[in-house]
């Protein structure tokens, strides 16, 4: 829905230029396109989120050896 509104907004802005301040109009169009592009890029992670899981047993198997001190930090940094 928001993407449709954004496209309609750009259609209106591009088809109705301001003749008395063309440079300002063009600058505002360029800035609005930039902000719309950054907004669309910001939406991609929300469309397909990534859920990560920590497997403690795999970490232990990789970094802990018998008879040696653990290489894992004592504090979680998550």
Automatic annotation (TrEMBL):
The chain crosses the membrane at residues 25-42. Keywords: Membrane, Signal, Transmembrane, Transmembrane helix. Residues 1-17 form the signal peptide. This is Uncharacterized protein. It comes from Punica granatum.
């Amino acid at each position: 829905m928001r993407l449709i509104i954004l496209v309609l907004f750009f259609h209106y802005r591009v088809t109705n230029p301001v003749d008395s301040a063309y440079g300002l109009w063009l600058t505002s169009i360029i800035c609005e396109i930039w902000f719309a592009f950054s907004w669309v890029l910001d939406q991609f992670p929300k469309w397909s989120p990534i859920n990560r899981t920590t497997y403690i047993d795999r970490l232990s198997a990789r970094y802990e050896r018998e008879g040696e001190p653990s290489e894992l930090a004592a504090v979680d940094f998550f």
